[in-house]
Amino acid sequence: MVIASNLGFPVVGSQRELKKLVESFWSGKINEQSLRDGYSKIQQAHWVLQQEKGLQHIPSGEFTLYDRVLDTAQQFGAIPKRYQDIANPLDQFFAMGRGLQRAATESSAKVDVPSMEMKKWFDTNYHFIVPEFEQDQSFQLEQAPRVVEQFKAAKALNIHTRPVLVGPVSFLYLGKAAKGVEEFDTLSLLPKVLPLYVEVLKQLKEAGADWVQIDEPILILDLEASVKLALEKAYKTIQAQLAGALKVLVAAYFGRVESNIYAVKDFVDAIHLDLVRAPEELDTVLPLLNKDQVLSVGVVDGRNIWINNLQNSIALVQKAVAALGQDRVIVAPSCSLAHSPFSTSFEVKIKEKNPELYSWLSFSVEKCAEIVTIAKAINGQDVKAELESNAAAIETRRTSPQTVNPTVRDRVAKIPTEAWKRPSPFATRREAQVKKLKLPLFPTTTIGSFPQTKDIRVARQQYKKGTLSQADYDTFIKAQMKNMVEVQEKLDLDVLVHGEPERNDMVEHFGHLLHGYDFTENGWVVSYGSRCVKPPVIFGDVSRRGPMTIDETVYAQSLTKRPMKGMLTGPVTMMKWSFVRDDIPANDLCAQVGLALRDEVVDLESAGIPCIQVDEPAIREGLPIRRADWDAYLEWSVGCFRLSTSGVRDETQIHTHMCYSDFNEIFDAIAALDADVITIENSKSDEKLLKIFETKQYTNEIGPGLYDIHSPRVPSVEEMKQRFGDMLKYIPAHLLWANPDCGLKSRQWPETEAALVNMVEVAKYFRAQHKA
């Protein structure tokens, strides 16, 4: 029989229970045992739910309190030296993920360590913690490996799971040389870590496991021959050591495996393919499998929220069954469902207000049901009612007037050539901006948001519930903005922001002001650690409902004589950080959003706002996995940013901001954005983002982040002086800005002000140095 399976499940819980637990532990409201008891209950509920839905291969071992890759590092003892003196494993774990700053006590020494580097997980909006390795790295397996313990916990509930591990080659390949260590090939450590993987697999077998899922997502990358050899060595060794005692499924997802499959295909029992991203690979892989191998077909989209076209998926699975037989096919999501919200059952408002849209939605729980329905259909069970209901919903989505606006589509079709770039080169624009803004050397600014305090969150909830009137809410927001402007003036920042107290999320806020968007009540997904986001849903053609930011930005500018930045989210990010429609080309949708933002940028300039920031943190993460696909994507994504920003005069300064990413790979495209000022997250990168300036001539202004805002830790003046001095090795003084890594929304006011005081002091110190 065809098996229904899953690759992973949202760890955060149905109502973000894990987030609340972890943050309660961080704040000291609960102790470690309460945290462990709480997350065990969440795990158990998830296993039971998947079993009740009818899944036969249920994952375990992928549950994490912060990040799966960080879990892997600690599980195998890859602990950077700066954290090794932290005795409590849980404190150590969270210190690596988010940093730790703790005063000395009678029983413990002072601790002050930053967090490890954080990067985007392939082309998703999830962030993982980058492992760090020494050339003489030693690995040591946990006494009770967490993947084994999770398997045993599920077994105690009479739920037989399929344990999940981050594969040894992906783990090493995605890592980096530890801070202060000369770059080296991290895959050279494979002989050291591989025996520990084998030991874990043997412990799983002893505990009663019959299948194990090993995730090797790097299989979808453009890999050098040495990496393929490492994959071959790893799985040949695992095969030899296990001698068939445990069946191994290697999972690749997010793209095409292409020729990389040859590195593993002869040494594993099953292979998982992402047939949502790469359906064409089914035909190329089927002939490569031997007579006993199993194929896991990822036909249900694990990354988006639209219902599956069951008939299309069944056709793909039937093709696999025709070639292999039913016993050698597993039905699965394309990737872990950790990238999808929990369940549509909580979406009461959409169901009541827009039942048609609701009928098109499918979250993790519903995707499990879709997987089971597909498997049942292949196995000859009666699913007629499910198929008829699904077909009807698919057809209404295709034909609904909610999805098409002829006026919007006509405007996109008639965009004039001159609208795709600013009329004057940067040198001309900079001259006009210097004259108008009169900024000092090393201007200081922030990225946009200030702390979202409890008072702000309570007021927003009261306003949404109708217990706070529009007038009272507006008065409250103005008071918050006034305070934020006063704080910035007291700190002596040069270019100010209004602080964004009215915004719950940089994408959702604008989605409410655009046609074509809708919003979930509980569509949360994890972005990093305990940080969750609730992406909007783009279901129709996009256009502006009216001015979006004019009132608050003009009010904030009226409170100060210093230049104020208007704050917008860019077209690529508005798409990538939403659950985006999949029924029109991405470049057409991006142009729709770009035109809506262009109208807002022009209105901000007309209202007297001298600086306008259009953030594009998602432009790098949206880069296609395979380099062969890069050029087409970069052409339209960069073009749509320029479309949104090119309607203003030379003296209006356009800013943009980008988050943790490997920018060096697309440096020319970043330059082609032609923003007057770009700010980037940099504090965790050990200068690697800056070294590109040694070889590339970047003539526009830039602000590499001076300190990490994802940690409550306050860096000292001396620490920031060192970092700023390093920046001056690569960036001419007249182009360099001083700013934090990212927005300050998630921080508290005391640490925010303390860090900004130090940052401004650093800028003033270097101004004095350059005048001397």
From TrEMBL:
UniProtKB keywords: Amino-acid biosynthesis, Metal-binding, Methionine biosynthesis, Methyltransferase, Transferase, Zinc
A GO BP annotation: methylation
Domain annotation Cobalamin-independent methionine synthase MetE C-terminal/archaeal: ranges: 442-764
Required cofactor names: Zn(2+)
GO molecular function, one term: zinc ion binding
Active site: H710 (proton donor)
Cofactor info, note text: Binds 2 Zn(2+) ions per subunit.
Chain residues that bind L-methionine: I447, G448, S449, E500, D615
InterPro entries: Cbl-indep_Met_Synth_N, Cobalamin-indep_Met_synthase, Met_Synth_C/arc, UROD/MetE-like_sf
UniProt EC number: 2.1.1.14
Positions in coiled-coil regions: none
Metabolic or biological pathway, per its Swiss-Prot or TrEMBL entry: Amino-acid biosynthesis; L-methionine biosynthesis via de novo pathway; L-methionine from L-homocysteine (MetE route): step 1/1
Residues engaged in binding 5-methyltetrahydropteroyltri-L-glutamate: K19, N125, R531, C532, W577
Domain Cobalamin-independent methionine synthase MetE N-terminal: 4-321
Origin superkingdom: Eukaryota
CDD domains: CIMS_C_terminal_like, CIMS_N_terminal_like
Binding site for Zn(2+): H657, C659, E681, C742
Family: Belongs to the vitamin-B12 independent methionine synthase family.
Function comment: Catalyzes the transfer of a methyl group from 5-methyltetrahydrofolate to homocysteine resulting in methionine formation.
Protein known as: 5-methyltetrahydropteroyltriglutamate--homocysteine S-methyltransferase
Species for this entry: Absidia glauca
